[in-house]
């Protein structure tokens, strides 16, 4: 199997290998037979984001807000495959496309409930908004074109299907460490 990996970090290398292996073999079982670096044995949530290298367009993004699996390695493997094959906004990624994709992995801090967003900075903090029942939206921090808290709040509400005027909402912020 030809390795087209251009990753710069262990996090994106694992994401790339996960996608490549899944597209070739329809599973990721063999990835769990390798020695997992200690830094990836912690239990943390993450998002894996795929962009078209040529123009920067989003090609897939899936993640978890709280850890789902036993360690970060598993979170990356599962979220990478999901971003490539199950993001409903896009057709599944093909093996031929994989060489044209840039990958980033965002490792999240635990979300903290907020009652005041007056000093919220969308460059340093991601945002989760929930109606406490069924609707919840999330946006990672430091996304191109999102320069104010108001923009970030508006986009998260729209993603969640929450009207701008709705009240009694729950707000949570988090930070990420982004790897390329």
Keywords:
26% helix; four-stranded antiparallel beta sheet; 180 residues; Dna Ligase, domain 1; 2 domains; 23% strand; alpha+beta; Glycoprotein, Type 4 Pilin; 4 helices
Q: What fraction of the residues are assigned to beta strands by DSSP?
A: 15-25%
CATH class of the largest domain: Alpha Beta
Helix content: 25-40%
Distance between the termini: 23 Å
Task: Kindly report the spatial arrangement of strands forming the biggest sheet.
Answer: 2-1-3-8
Short description:
The protein is an alpha+beta fold. The mean pLDDT is about 95.
Care to describe what's here?
The chain is an alpha+beta fold. It has 2 domains: 10-108, 2-Layer Sandwich (Glycoprotein, Type 4 Pilin); 112-175, Hypothetical protein ph0010, domain 2 (Dna Ligase, domain 1). Helix content is 26%, strand content 23%. Helix 1 (10-25) packs across helix 2 (72-85). The protein is globular, with a radius of gyration of 17 Å. The model has no long low-confidence stretch (mean pLDDT 95).
Question: Topology, please?
Answer:
Blueprint: H1 10-25, E1 46-52, E2 58-63, H2 72-85, H3 95-98, E3 101-108, E4 112-114, E5 126-130, E6 136-139, H4 149-160, E7 170-174, E8 176-179
Antiparallel strand pairs: 1-2, 1-3, 3-8, 4-7, 5-6, 5-7
